[in-house]
Amino acid sequence: MTSLPKEKFPTASTIGRTSFSRIAIRIGIPVLVFLVVIGGTYLVAKGEYLIAAALAVIPLAVLFLEMGMRWNEIYPVMIIFSALFLKLGFSTGRSSQLVLSLVVATGLSFLWIFQMFLERRVRFNPPLVTIPVFLFCFSTLFSLVWGIVFRDPLVSIWGSFPFVQIASTLVIIISVMTMVLTGNLIKKTSTLALIVILFIIGGVMGLIRNFTKFQLPINCAGLYAMWAVALASSMAFFHHNIPLIVRGLLLVFSALWLYWGFGVNITWLAGWVPLFFVIVVVGYLRSPKLAIFLLVLLVILVITNYDYLVDTIELENRISGSTRVSAWEQNWVITKDHLLFGTGPAGYAVYYMTYFPNRAMATHNNYLDMLSQIGIVGCIFMFWFFGAILWKGWKLVQRLRGQRNFMEALAAACLAGTLGGMMMMFFGDWLFPFAYTQSIAGFDYSVYNWIFMGVILAMDQMTLPGEKQNA
User: Fold this and answer.
1) Is 234 exposed, middle or buried (0-12, 13-18, 19+ CB in 10 A)?
2) How far apart are CA 443 and CA 229, in angstroms?
3) Helix (H, G, I), strand (E, B) or coil at 90
4) Which residues pair with 470 in a beta bridge?
5) Can you list the alpha helix ranges (DSSP code H) found in 119-243?
6) Structural domain boundaries of the chain?
7) Which residues pair with 99 in a beta bridge?
8) What is the pTM (predicted TM-score) of this model?
9) pLDDT per residue over 95-124, tens digit each?
10) Which is nearest to 222 in space by CA: 443, 419, 450?
11) What is the number of alpha carbons within 13 Å of residue 220 lying toward its C-beta?
12) Which of 231, 314, 324, 378 has its CA 20 to 30 A from that of 121?
């Protein structure tokens, strides 16, 4: 007996999505256009040309919003593009700027969450990472309130400090939410390839700016060079589907960034230590023999520049080494009394200016920073999702081992870069920029780390057994 085909009924998710589309396109935009034409005509007649022009943008903004909700996979691309190529900021009336990339990341994060609630499909993957991430965000907000309520009554604050604390809280939360957004929205290999291409193009522009007089508009600050070298070297070592000459050029690209860090800016350890680290890790993931070969090259490089390197390290120890230890000791004087939930985001700054106004020193250690700001509870959640990301990255590399393609290369680069970023947290606030050192504008380059950590999560979902990879 032939069974009748089952009738497909619309789900709540499809109903929500379709309803929104119909309202936005078939009703909302035409009505808006009609109102804008009437209002614009009236304003032009009154001579209010600027207001009329602003009014004309509204239908375009609504259309852009609706299109963005349809193709939200481009959100991570928009964030990284704004950070790389659009080094713009908005004045806050204080020393730190509100950078465009933070505005974009914040807006897209809220838009994504709003869209999920609208379509009744609130879901965050993978739970192994997202559960501790959301607990971390909640504990950060709780630490903000806790630090204010239980602040030492002798501590004096200045007028802008509440704004600084709110902005610092936003940077911390949006940083990790950028990772979650990236991990949940990217579904196609082509989107991953676009991110890598943009990053390599940015690296070429950065080299042109570094070695010539052309001041190209590119943001290569923070740990950018580490990620550029990780991506380029990994593509050269793993990706056998690209021409040999392109792989050679990628190695030249990596070598130039290594030279820029070690040869030209050796006094800045963050400019070359993580680069050497990631290229060896990428080499190890490709082949232990390759890692040994790379280590031998690095040893030769160190030996041939031994006196230069020793003088630089001794200078660094004199200037920063003893200062770092003193800064850690000073920070511990405050932190030991606020171990559970910390002093709140940027909270220990007011303690410094109250008790050590003439010798307030940055810790240059992101782990100690975070312990002082969000306490042991928040740090437990931070280390939880750090460990989960590394585990996901390692399993991803093992799953793709031997494929010698773009996906295996990118997995190795992201794991190496994530390890490098977590290592460099010992030497500066490279993942969570502190308000009074990197400032909230530091998000402009710290976001690179979170995008690529999110790529690990996205690739993990894309390559699970039974999942079909989209081009």
Assistant:
1) buried
2) 20
3) strand
4) 188
5) 127-149, 161-185, 189-211, 224-238
6) 20-70, 98-462
7) 89
8) 0.84
9) 677 888 998 899 899 888 888 887 778 888
10) 443
11) 25
12) 378
